[in-house]
Write a structure and sequence with these properties.
Strands 2-3-1-4-5 form a five-stranded parallel β-sheet. The chain has one domain: 3-Layer(aba) Sandwich (Rossmann fold), CATH 3.40.50.300. Helix 4 packs parallel to helix 6, helix 5 packs antiparallel against helix 6 and helix 5 crosses helix 9. It is globular. The protein is 55% helix and 11% strand. The chain is an alpha/beta fold.
Length: 218
């Protein structure tokens, strides 16, 4: 019996992976998709035309980058819907506004008018009854120290050169954001409780939890 059937995970489920930069979302996305034979929806990083520029000058590029991410994630949302689900998604659309746009606005690296324009577009596109929310959001959490070392280990220069203050601010905001998040059920996983890199067996207990959470009434 395959693991999807073993744990009774529906073929049409959409599971989104959330958490701060470097916490392990892409790694989790790949492992879950392999185990469940689901499709993946990844963020575009290498081909993103604004990301490098953004890290070089937040004020100049934060609005452009948010619009780019919103468009890309919305297209992915449409693709997942057209396939009738069966997806693991690397980062939720909710983090774009709840973490990134908000943080840049509140820290003064996105102007008020740009933030309001972005927010009204986001709300019109996402905060409607027509927008299909995921069946489950898996939130990955870990200490700032572990996350900083993963960012260094992964080696994207734009992130390595960004101040620790930036990552610390984001880490704090994630904690607050997830405590208030209620658009779909949330499964929280601490990165010290599994090891997908060195222990293949790590995925099964996670699937068991996923199955349990998917069965909970919304
Ligand atoms: N369970 C793990 N144990 C150790 N290192 C990990 C684990 N998961 C991810 N990593 C490493 O941490 C870094 C960031 O992981 P990644 O999945 O790219 O994070 P994200 O997509 O959240 O930014 C990568 O170098 C990856 O190899
Ligand atoms: N909405 C966003 N605003 C700014 N930066 C963002 C946004 N979404 C993702 N990013 C950045 C953060 C990382 O440098 C890369 C990829 O994220 P990761 O958490 O490593 O998958 O994009």
């Amino acid at each position: 019996m395959n693991v999807k059937n073993k744990y009774g995970i529906p073929d049409h489920a959409i599971i989104t992976i959330a958490g701060t930069v470097g916490v392990g979302k892409s790694t989790m996305t790949k492992s879950l998709a392999d185990a469940l034979n689901f499709r993946t929806s990844f963020e575009k990083v290498d081909t993103n035309p604004y990301l490098d520029k953004f890290y070089g000058d937040f004020e100049r590029w934060s609005f452009h980058l948010q619009i780019y991410f919103l468009a890309e994630r919305f297209k992915e949302q449409k693709r997942m819907f057209e396939y009738d689900g069966g997806f693991i998604q690397d980062r939720s659309i909710y983090e774009d506004t709840g973490i990134f746009a908000k943080m840049h606005y509140e820290k003064g690296t996105m102007s008020e008018v740009d933030y309001e324009t972005y927010k009204s577009l986001f709300d019109a596109m996402v905060m409607t009854p027509y927008f299909p929310h995921p069946n489950l959001l898996i939130y990955l959490e870990g200490s700032l120290e572990d996350i900083l070392s993963r960012i260094q280990e992964r080696g994207r220069p734009m992130e390595q050169q960004t101040s620790i203050e930036y990552w610390k601010e984001m880490h704090g905001r994630y904690e607050k954001w997830i405590n208030e998040f209620n658009a779909c059920p949330v499964l929280r996983l601490n990165i010290n409780d599994y090891d997908l890199m060195n222990n293949e067996g790590s995925i099964e207990p996670i699937l068991e939890k996923v199955s349990h959470f998917l069965k909970q009434p919304i």
